[in-house]
Structure prediction request, 670 residues.
Amino acid sequence: MKDVAKHAGVSVSTVSYVLNDSGPVAAPRRARVLEAIRALEYTPNESARSLKRRSASTIGLVVPDLSNQFFALVAEGVEREASARGVLVVLCVPGATDVPEAQHAALLRGQRLDGVVYLSGTGTAPREILELADSGHIVLVDEQIAGFDLPSVVADGRRGAREIAASVLQMGHRQLAVIGGPAALWTAEQRLAGYREAFAGAGIDPDEVPVYTGDYRMASGERLAEEALTCAGPRPTALLCANDLMAIGALEYCKREGLRVPEDVSIAGFDDLPIAALLTPRLTTVRQPAAEMGAMAARLLFELIDGRSSDGDEYSEPLPAELLLRESVGPAPRG
Amino acid sequence: MKDVAKHAGVSVSTVSYVLNDSGPVAAPRRARVLEAIRALEYTPNESARSLKRRSASTIGLVVPDLSNQFFALVAEGVEREASARGVLVVLCVPGATDVPEAQHAALLRGQRLDGVVYLSGTGTAPREILELADSGHIVLVDEQIAGFDLPSVVADGRRGAREIAASVLQMGHRQLAVIGGPAALWTAEQRLAGYREAFAGAGIDPDEVPVYTGDYRMASGERLAEEALTCAGPRPTALLCANDLMAIGALEYCKREGLRVPEDVSIAGFDDLPIAALLTPRLTTVRQPAAEMGAMAARLLFELIDGRSSDGDEYSEPLPAELLLRESVGPAPRG
DNA sequence: TTGTAAGCGTTATCAT
DNA sequence: ATGATAACGCTTACAA
Prediction:
């Protein structure tokens, strides 16, 4: 920068003024500066800038797992929104590494990050992250952490669950089973609540419907489908799975056991992962607008960072979740 | 930091020494410093550090698209390796935004990034990126950019292609069609070469086998499968698709048209996306060790950055690509 | 072994 | 309108 100043025959402050037009500068001199910048191929040193400005123009994105397409789509949304503002996104995948989460948190405090979009996938967060919530800025996506009132962007899972359950009931199913998500997860709870509302609405006692609790992963869907379909008593004719991954597991179980879907048993998922429409049968599910959720989370985070939030913690309305009827749910077999 | 020094009754340099054990410091004083750090909840300012050290401990990761699980897995590999070294990974998804790539490149020059793991997905890169290759450090993954001799991590796609084609031939197929990738892509070229080697090895004139050129996306697989299967002359009994996405498209076409796979037509893919094993029929494919490739790219990049490379440009051996025989390829129907 | 002090490249506050 | 100059928070000779 000094070189640029010299080359243009001006002072460094003038160069700085030109760079950020943060000060008045006469046209001819500004031209000379610009010219010098080009000539010397000068690029401002961002480390110095952020040191001075006390802001890194960088946010963090914490996702449990990138091979889960839901998270990947959220990440895309966040990245899009951030790069539109010239903000960098630092990726953290705590699961993929054995670096303690505390270290991730240190990043934020070390001013390398101005804020964080956080997806735990577990409904809990290490103490370090929670402490950050006060000082640093943090926005959750599709989850809420019990006992903490953190800003978050969520989809209307409850409504989606109610609708998908209602539509299954409308196909004549009366023997249902729910393969739910981890009890600790807010989304799991919401979706379960939605299912139960639909049951009640159809004159079924929600407590009569067996609920198997999984962990949102494929393997648990497979295992619990087996449990649900082989247990004593009348076999369920439809499985309500709280996410697509578990629904896929259930599908795999049926495939292995030679059960036809939906003729023998109907299966519904939740999320609308890109893969859902490619399965055989195509999976009936509820679309979570993942990319939009990521984008909205980023926007919310920027508002927090800019201190432009109306007041205290900020929330967005739940985004709509759209019911997608596909082949994996069919009419109930006649009993 | 000054506060810490004061609190511990030492000088700032001593604190710095303790922080990086970059200098000798007596045990009792070190303890006092540590204690002060804890007491004051001191976290070093990383912006200042990188300003001084002229290194950001941050690398960039450029991927065309995160919803493609191959890229997502590469990203996970990169992240894992980086965070193990305390290096941050900033994510860039050029496609998801309209920010000119030039701006991305400026990041590198602005010293915010020490290097970049680059996946264009197109086999080309903007001039800005290429210029970086000299000054900055860059490693490509699963591609090579024509006309430039850049360090890269690749899988042995040629061998994989040869093996999968050979195995299809061994099932008795004689009427084949290839659904290839974009001619400009190095991987597409490699895979095609592999197929052709297998054809020649089986006594088939490679030039007799029709090649339809797609763009590695699902839609093109669907369209080209139609072309291949409805063209004049004997219908192919097997489709060799240069990646899984196009194979999935082909599968979709068959599904729509009521063609049974593999009874009527066999379909082979390439990549082994996580979804491949979940399709019906399960997709025969070649595994690209995506996460390992990402990790290796990161390691290679760190070597370049540390100047620890044996000499000039550095390459890794192609990683092995493993043939996975599954249901989508079956014996040739008797003609 | 420890402390002092000179930068690292910017930005921002002042005089001019 | 412009130019010195003092921070920003850290590292690292160099001196003690």
The two ends of chain B are 81 Å apart (CA to CA).
